[in-house]
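Q: Can someone sanity-check these two? First one:
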Amino acid sequence: MDSSHIAWNCLRLVYPPVSSLDAEPLVADKQVEAVLERSKFYLIGKRPQIFFGEPIVKNKGSNIALTLQMTREDGSVVEDCVEIALKKLPKARRHHAAACLSMSTNKILVIDDAEEVDDEEDPTEPLNWFTTEKLLYDRWRGTPGISGLHRLREFTTYELLYVGISKKNNTSKRLFSGSHEARQRVLNNEFAAYGGGRISEEIYLFAFDIEPLSVRTLALTDQLTGDPGGPAELDKIAVVADAEKAFIDLLDAEYNRVKYKNYPVGEDGLYAAGLSGYSYQFAEDITFVAKKGTFRGDRDPLSGYPSNRACALVIHGDLTTVFDPLAGHEDDECSAD
């Protein structure tokens, strides 16, 4: 066995998916903006809008149950139930809480119904809040107090429209704030699946951070002295630049005009980094459908890293492929033409 130096690049969302409609108002919140600034890699996707049903209050107000419903373009309906145990939610400060559903914004606010509030607490600040996307995100990440949603995967499958990066700035300023050229083209050309909805409510923005993990395998003849070969630490900007090219080349998002046909060869990626191979995986329960195939992420609930069900973009020398750990299985969601 020869020694090798491999980079395994894990992609995680820094914030739940956000509709294009909500993007600019969202970054007016400085705390949210600071979170989004951790991202330099982003995707734009499309999926029919999801609606909350009327909530049912249970257990003397400590639990609420409601449905999520989505109508696909072919007219078929996806519907599932979720239950929120208010006392188990993070930030729950009281023994009692009340849930208020704002139908006008399709947003749930979980508020405290206690008469007394500690001096350092803002009585107007909600204990928690849920858009449909944040509820899905919290569910697949195992947030306490949220159960149900057995058809979650059907809600978290998106059409991949665009892959982008911001090497000099960040996703907040590049994609969420102001005018992003590809985002505007998407909004100008796409049609809403939901008859009465706006296309901006069906276009979603995904802000990712990339965690490069470097692994070295040793041959029996190797000695644990001297230079092990390969980079001791990967340049984050090079990883981001390479990831953009990998996703565009292997999946082919419709609104990316530059296609990087020579990938993995390039001056600003990982091709010349001295690696034996490298890969990209999503540590999130989301699936993207693109021109060249379907790519599924899958989060291990214990480690927070991609599970053994997650697809991978794999690069080895000049060879590139989409690795499918479930090839041949009936529930396979990962493929490439």
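And here is the second, same format, sequence then tokens:
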Amino acid sequence: MTFAELQAKNPNIRLYHVTDPAFAPYGRIIEADTADMVARMEAIPMPESGVRYVPTEESLEKAPLADFIRAELFGDVPAQIGYCWGESNRLNALEWHICNEINLPATDLVLLLALRSELVDNRIDAEKVVGFYVPRGTLIEVYSTSLHYCPCQVEDGGFRCLVGLTKETNTPLRGKPADPLLFARNKWLIAHDENEALIARGAVPGISGENYTVKR
């Protein structure tokens, strides 16, 4: 599906190509040779259903691009190279970290993003959310000031996306935090008001308005 076709199918979502200047407040594109990393990602089997996230994936950690990500994009501090893949097409929640996040799709996909500065009393209206179409093989950095969540697929068969973060991000907490939004290590999260399954797991409802579905 072309970007123009995707826009036509989703007139209710503000959708931009990641090369559009509208992406600048949320992140940036990084020029790099991604072919080897994409091939490594494509060799990993898809989950049988739903979405799976692995904070660190050995085959990806050994790739030359992983060395570049750790040394140049994380400033030589401990970082992990993991993977999120499966089938998802809804907003459902928004999260943020106290570090930038590196993404590399091995399929075309859409990221639904908002700005942390738009949170008011830990709530945000979905109308603040903007979608960005990221083509396969495009390495991007999503700033820590950007709210984000699971990528949305734009083709049958799901999506594949590399996730680079500082080490131990998204792993289980050691204890019960005082902040109810702290959902995992270095992961603050709010659920859409309609996402009963995530709220049942302890997520705080914080997104009102339409729970966007990316149609393909």
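A (reply): Looked at the second one. The mean pLDDT is 97. Residues 3-208 form a domain with the Jelly Rolls fold (CATH 2.60.120.10).
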